């Protein structure tokens, strides 16, 4: 199978709107034509760029689509980068994978010029690349490498995750089926476009199904909510921190406006939450304000989406659902024995066509990531009544304290119900008595205070004694990465 079969709706004579951005609306046939001109320009005099790594720093727009799919059609490996990355981060990304060309908006060239000169990378704009016409493009096998994304780096230095066209196709098709994508769908895209959530779950699914995607370079709550009121969108995908912001936004509006926004979300066919665990209180608040029952799912850069709550049927607060079609998911204990009983913690391991190929230029990490053909996620979960519940990362969210293995996420969920706590991250810090002491890093609601003794007394009725934090740290804000995940390693430093 050749990748020319991909994105069947991006084709000649398809006059439906594919992308809406700050420049206007762009039809599928116009998007297709521009992609081909970019692919031809990247090719130059070559028939195939043979998996050349081409990086790009392009904000959410039609041009992002042009570059991403254009690189693929030319036979290259697309390397989308975070437009908010610091210079040291960009240096790591670009140097670690041997990028030869970097595509960026002209206004960003000034800050990129010195870096590209140091690394011997050709710095270009989209217009620099576009050819005047497109001749024959290469025919490419599904087995070809297609995409490098970087891990979040919450527990170690980011690694380049290399994925094939076959895996991307598998990731897309399972979501088209599971979440009932259709040509009638319209979705906003404000999530970072260097991450699987924005690239695969939203952009690629939308374009493959023939839907319309509104590309937004940043989160603009007023703009989004005005479009929600006017029934622009049929589905919505965000991370928990954005749902928290939306809840706060609703609470700050007058009754009529809040009702109109809530009703607008309620009329959508689907609201999805992911990338980080959705606190139960956020799940319940969103349901109360909009009528929407959030569909929570689980995935990783290495696998795309693997587990999801159902489209039709019960969606459980605090649970990520069941394995998606085409993905095999099992739990294993620390001795690599499959966990067969419910409510017993184990590491999530996966098999399927959706899995990545390798960590770029890191055979040791690749080898360590697999055991007997299973990809080892490093995430700990339990199964309850057939549904997976995530306990957290084995390296940072599982706290070994006083002989118990505790889930930081579980404790965080309880603490978030305290009326004075706006945000919380629970970590384990070395302790001579406990091995690791449970520490709650909290951000308080405006005008409130919280002493440890008061929190401890409050916790007594909420959780087992061994789960109660041994101390608290009051912070102005929690450190987060681009996807809203708290970087707990920073809190441990």
Description:
- Helices cover 31% and strands 27% of the residues.
- The chain has 493 residues and is an alpha/beta fold.
- The protein has 3 domains: 201 residues, ANL, N-terminal domain (Rossmann fold, 3-Layer(aba) Sandwich), CATH 3.40.50; 151 residues, ANL, N-terminal domain (Rossmann fold); 95 residues, GMP Synthetase, Chain A, domain 3.
- The strands form 7 sheets. The protein has a 5-stranded mixed beta sheet with strand order 11-12-13-14-15. Strands 16, 17, 19, 20 and 21 form a 5-stranded antiparallel beta sheet that branches. Strands 2-1-10-9 form a 4-stranded mixed beta sheet.
- Strand 3, helix 2 and strand 4 form a beta-alpha-beta unit.
- The termini are far apart.
- The mean pLDDT is 91.
What percent of residues adopt helix (DSSP H or I)?
A: 25-40%
Q: What is the approximate shape? A: globular
Low-confidence stretches: none
- What Rg, in angstroms, do the CA atoms define? 23 Å
């Amino acid at each position: 199978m050749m990748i020319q079969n991909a994105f069947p709706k991006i084709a000649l004579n398809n006059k439906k709107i594919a992308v809406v951005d700050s420049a206007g609306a762009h039809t599928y046939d116009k998007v297709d034509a521009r992609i081909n001109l970019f692919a031809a320009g990247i090719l130059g005099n070559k028939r195939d760029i043979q998996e050349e790594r081409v990086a790009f720093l392009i904000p959410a727009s039609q041009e992002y689509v042009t570059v991403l799919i254009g690189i693929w059609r030319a036979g290259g490996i697309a390397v989308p980068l975070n437009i908010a990355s610091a210079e040291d981060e960009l240096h790591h990304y670009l140097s670690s994978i041997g990028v030869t060309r970097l595509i960026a908006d002209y206004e960003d060239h000034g800050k990129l010029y010195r870096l590209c000169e140091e690394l011997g990378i050709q710095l270009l704009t989209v217009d620099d690349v576009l050819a005047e016409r497109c001749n024959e493009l290469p025919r490419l096998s599904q087995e070809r490498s297609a995409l490098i994304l970087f891990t979040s780096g919450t527990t170690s230095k980011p690694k380049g995750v290399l994925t094939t066209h076959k895996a991307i196709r598998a990731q897309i098709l399972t979501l088209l089926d599971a979440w009932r994508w259709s040509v009638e769908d319209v979705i906003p895209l404000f999530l970072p476009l260097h991450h699987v959530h924005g690239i695969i779950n939203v952009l690629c699914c939308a374009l493959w199904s023939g839907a319309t995607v509104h590309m937004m370079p940043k989160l603009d709550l007023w703009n989004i909510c005005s479009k929600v009121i006017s029934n622009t969108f049929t589905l919505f995908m965000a991370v928990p921190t954005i749902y928290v912001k939306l809840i706060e936004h609703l609470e700050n509006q007058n009754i009529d406006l809040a009702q109109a926004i809530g009703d607008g979300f309620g009329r959508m066919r689907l609201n999805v939450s992911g990338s980080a665990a959705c606190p139960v209180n956020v799940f319940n608040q969103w349901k109360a304000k909009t009528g929407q029952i959030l569909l929570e799912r689980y995935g990783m850069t290495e696998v795309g989406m693997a587990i999801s709550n159902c489209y039709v049927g019960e969606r459980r607060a605090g649970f990520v659902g069941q394995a998606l079609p085409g993905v095999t998911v099992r739990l294993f204990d620390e001795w690599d024995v499959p966990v067969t009983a419910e409510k017993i913690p184990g590491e999530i391991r996966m098999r399927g066509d959706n899995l990545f190929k390798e960590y770029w230029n890191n055979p040791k990490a690749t080898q360590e990531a697999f055991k007997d053909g299973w990809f080892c996620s490093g995430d700990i979960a339990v199964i309850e009544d057939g549904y997976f519940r995530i306990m957290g990362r084995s390296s940072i969210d599982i706290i070994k304290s006083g002989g118990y293995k505790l889930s930081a996420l579980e404790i965080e969920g309880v603490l978030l119900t305290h009326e004075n706590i706006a945000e919380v991250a629970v970590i384990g810090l070395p302790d001579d008595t406990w091995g690791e002491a449970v520490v709650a890093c909290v951000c308080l609601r405006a005008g409130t205070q919280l002493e440890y003794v008061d929190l401890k007394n409050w916790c007594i009725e909420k959780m087992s004694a061994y789960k109660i934090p041994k101390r608290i740290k009051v912070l102005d804000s929690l450190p987060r990465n681009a996807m809203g995940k708290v970087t707990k390693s920073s809190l441990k430093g």
